[in-house]
Fold these 2 entries.
Entry 1:
Amino acid sequence: MKKNLTYILALMILMTACKSATPTQASEPSAPKTPDAATETPISLTEIPLGAGYGMDGGWYELYFTDPESPLASQETGGVDAPLAAAIDSARLTVDVAIYSLSLNSIRDVLIDAHKRGVQVRMVMESENLDRTDPQKIKDAGIPILGDRREGLMHDKFVVIDNSEVWLGSMNFTDSGGYTDNNNLMRIRSVKVAENFTREFEEMFLDDKFGVDVVPETPNPRVTIDGTPIDVYFSPDDGVQASFIDLVNNAKQSIHFMAFSFTADEIGEAVRNRAQEGVVVRGVMDDEQVNSNLGTEFDPFRQADLDVLRDGNDGQMHHKVMIIDENTVILGSYNFTQSAETKNDETLIVIYNEEIAAQFMAEFERVYSQAQAVK
């Protein structure tokens, strides 16, 4: 019995020693999960429910996309204009609006209400759109609106609230802009970004300088918010196209774009050159603009065998967006045209943030998937 116990004990010691002598194989660390841009939401974002459209809250920013395909796409159900209207309704001191066209009752009503409760409300608009019903109602309520009265367009689409936040994007404040067209709208909470847009607004509203009356005085051309750099440009003041082309030339992996109007030869050539170097290029362009624009870049893109499609929306594919390497987003009112570069009042910002880029990629995939049917 003792011999058996001694034998078993010795065997256990030997097995333990052998196990200790065998090197433990290190487990390979799992790669961090990257959200699928078309289907998943980054963990740090909170979805903002809308009657029609898509909304995401990232803390210092909110991002919205219209959804023309939604059966609930109407003002009665509330779309991307609803959060903007709520923000104006919460204004305490000032609301400055630079908008090409306005017909959304939701925005008209809250501007008039803000004015009635003592908030300073000021507006600049494209003169050709001033005589429409809603701008006239706003003027009749006592809100000052200055038209550009110039050959170029006052094509901006931004709102500055209480000198602390800016709303901007591709969306005109119209029924079609909010509900039947593909558009984006972004809210940025930043005093420095607001300072830039207030300076641009007052250049027009107070100094009566529009379009070619160039005043390159952006106080904070680059602002960093929670680690995210943002470059702010106003056209034609800042020579936007040169910076735009630099971003395209620095693309390493991919270029995705959604372009309402794309006639700028230099930008188109830069995109094609990157494609020749192996950069993946995919794009969607508004079908009506492709048909009507003189010098559209659509034909050269297709001749270069690039994956660029006409949109499939019955309304307008009104985005002016380019996504570089899925980490940098170019957006604003700035169409990819010579008029935007040299004559119109325009806004363009560049955001260096993968999380935000993923949301624009999700919108790109929605627009692209609809466009494929009309290839």
Entry 2:
Amino acid sequence: MKIEIWSDIMCPFCYIGKRRLESALKDFEYADKVDIEWKSFLLNPDMVTDPNKSTLEYLSETKGWSLGQTQQITQQVVDMAKEEGLTYHMDKTVVANAKNAHRLLQLAKTIEKGDAMKERLLKAYFTEGKNIDDRDILVQLALEVGLEQSRVEACLDSEEFLDKVEQDVYESKLIGVRGVPFFVLDRKYGISGAQPKEAFVETIEKAWKEYVKTNPILEVIENQDGSSCDLEDGNC
């Protein structure tokens, strides 16, 4: 069963939602039969990267809040993240356009490294305060999750996978995604936002019941006394 997740790297609730989904899957009997696919979503596709400005300063300017008000509001998100074992340093997060980071994510997906790349990008942004639009930083993060340097550099030095990013964004509009994170289970059930773990558990179980109606799971019982012929080795 597939779970598709529309998410942006700059979204604090997306990291929290990721942890809550992971927690729900830990308690799910068939978690090994669930395929997670991260979809790109751009909250601010036209954002101009400014490594000298923090997200708090940016929010203060764009929302018309004082810096004190901004800190107070974002502290609620910091506390929410802490409950999921995450450490947010909102005062260190850098104003950065996430488009190149999403292209890197798309590259990672081609070699089954999408989840690892997504995790590394989120941690880099919210915990480590790294500029996720800096080429050298993106290369280093990609190397840490097992991508080849030459392949990463070739991607970042071109517009490769930009069409994939735009396709994900377009698809999100077709299915009515208005905010992220947005989780789509088996293309039948949706979860909007970083809902409590219980909501994920309930929806996963509901989606699974529908999924197995057309995709039955064969349970194999192995017994030491159950003699058989080995097809692979030809042993009987």
